[in-house]
Each structure stands twice: as structure tokens, then as C-alpha cells.
Design goal:
Layout: H1 10-28, E1 39-40, E2 52-57, E3 64-70, E4 76-77, E5 83-84, E6 87-91, E7 103-107, E8 116-126, E9 136-144, E10 147-156, E11 164-168
Antiparallel strand pairs: 1-10, 2-7, 2-9, 3-4, 3-8, 5-6, 6-7, 8-11, 9-10
Length: about 170
């Protein structure tokens, strides 16, 4: 009686190995750039809030970026006006004068923010006069109840980013 070989032939083994490799590769290669994915709040500088707009950037010795938020009634909160409609700019980085690092933070204490649409953006304010690189990478997060609702990332060398909106319930 002839014995059957229960092992796979070399061509089939190669196909199974390649299939397993690609399945493993694709499952590990996720796209982390989803700007609308709700995630837990990372460790951020400044007061927590609901909502909270938090900016972190690079190259603070050469670049001054400023966070701006317009509240539902049209009040703009920024370095020019750090308070408005219950919100507050509590962290402001000015060139190398950044005791809390290259961060800016605007927040409302829980239960105090008006409902409605907020507009927000980043302005490239100054080069700080140090003669270094004039671009900065940024990460801007919108947080509500400890969850990151949106994350905006990019590089700014002049001007300002587009204006984004956040709807506060």
C-alpha cells in the first residue's frame, strides 16, 4: 500500500507563506492619519476642558505660532484677547519664552461652553528673529470630555492654516 504524503508540495507551501505574510503585513499597517477618529486624550499641556483646543508645535526658538478660536457669538480668543464667552487661553508660547514648551491651549471648564459652532486655526505670527529655520510642524487637537475628536497636523512656514469648525453640543 502506497503511503500518501500529507505535507504540501513546495509551490503550495510558498503560496501559503506569502498569503500569511501579506495578511500579517496588512493588519499591522494601519493608517494613523484619520482626523476624525475619537481617541483617548494624550498628555497635553494646559487645563483640561470641554471643549479644549490644544496646539503643540516644533522649532519654538525660531517660530511663533498662535492658536485662534472664534466662539459661537463671534468672540475671538487668542494672544490678543485671552478670554471670551467663558473660554480662556491659559498657555501661550512666545518664541523662546515657552515655560511649558511649544504649546498653546484654549479651554472651557466642563459645562460652561456655549453650544454652537466654533472656528479655529493656527497663525504663523513671527520668525523670532533668530535666523534659523522658519517652518514648524504642528499638531492641533480638539478634545471633548477627555476624548480627542479631531487631530490636525501639518507644517506652517507663513500665513495661517485653513479655518476648521467644531460643533459643541
Amino acid at each position: 500500500m502506497k503511503r500518501k504524503n500529507f505535507f504540501l508540495n513546495p509551490d503550495t507551501r510558498m503560496a501559503v507563506a506569502l498569503l500569511a505574510f501579506f495578511c500579517l503585513f496588512l493588519s499591522c499597517n494601519s493608517n494613523d492619519d484619520n482626523n476624525n477618529q475619537v481617541t483617548e486624550e494624550p498628555e497635553l499641556v494646559g487645563q483640561p476642558g470641554n471643549p479644549r483646543f490644544n496646539l503643540k508645535f516644533t522649532n519654538e526658538e525660531n517660530v511663533d505660532l498662535d492658536l485662534h478660536v472664534i466662539t459661537p457669538d463671534g468672540t475671538e480668543i487668542s494672544y490678543l484677547n485671552p478670554f471670551g464667552q467663558g473660554g480662556e487661553l491659559d498657555v501661550d508660547c512666545l518664541c523662546e519664552d515657552c515655560p511649558q514648551g511649544p504649546n498653546e491651549n484654549i479651554f472651557w471648564e466642563a459645562g460652561t461652553a456655549p453650544t454652537g459652532t466654533y472656528k479655529y486655526w493656527i497663525e504663523y505670527y513671527d520668525t523670532c528673529g533668530n535666523g534659523g529655520s522658519t517652518s514648524s510642524d504642528y499638531t492641533l487637537r480638539v478634545v471633548r470630555n477627555g476624548e480627542v475628536l479631531e487631530t490636525k497636523t501639518g507644517t506652517l512656514s507663513s500665513g495661517m492654516t485653513q479655518q476648521w469648525t467644531h460643533n459643541q453640543q
